[in-house]
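Sample 3 of the quickstart, ligand zinc ion:
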Amino acid sequence: MEIKLKTILLTFDVEEFDLPIEFGKDISEDEQFEISKNGVEEVLELLNKNNIKATFFVSAKFSEKYPELIREISEDHEIGLHCLEHKDDYSKMGHDEAYEKIKTGKEIIERIIDKKIIGFRSPRLQQISYEILNKIGIIYDSSLNPTYIPGRYNNFFSPRKVFSKNDIKIIPISVSPILRLPIFWLAFRNFPLFYSKYITNRNKDFVCLVFHSWEFINIENMDLSRLIKRNTGKKLKKKLQKYIHYYKKEKFTTISSYLMIS
Ligand SMILES: [Zn+2]
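Result:
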């Protein structure tokens, strides 16, 4: 099969691992931080070994806990804003409160890395006002998953390509053309590798893949649904290594570099 695809954007969400709480399970704050931090180290090792660049969307809370690690990521990769705290639920906040949280999060991380942040991805891919993002100097948003997954995403008719809205560039998470088959973290881990390669190759301009740093730690013995914990840790690292190896390393870049040239 001839591969027309030009660019692969690997992205990693780095946050306090609060997903068990979303499912009503207990996890201490120390453990939430520890799992995500150890995961970042696995991801960095993988990227550096392959000499490729990626984009990390980080929470300010995590960044304050591990400023050195965030600076280390920032030396080779792009840092984007994920949130102030991962539990932030913008649907329960007024406009001003959401604005304050996102703005504060951005300022905290920018102070740590001593660079401007231009990208945003919201926690759990919540919809957020582009007006707010615009006001705090965000240039692109990567929170749109243009697929349909019952009870989670209802974006079947949203664009798959980069588009602009309220002066924000939207870079959607990738799906296949027509059927909109997803390729985000759950799909990449739970479906065989050839599926992800197939969906990737059906795209021409770019693919944007989403992972979390915590997925690179084996959480299979945690009391969580099989879909969420399956193939985490070394299994995912090996799978992503195979995926990276399949493509030319020149195809991998950060979202900001991609948007500047496209
Ligand atoms: Zn997240």
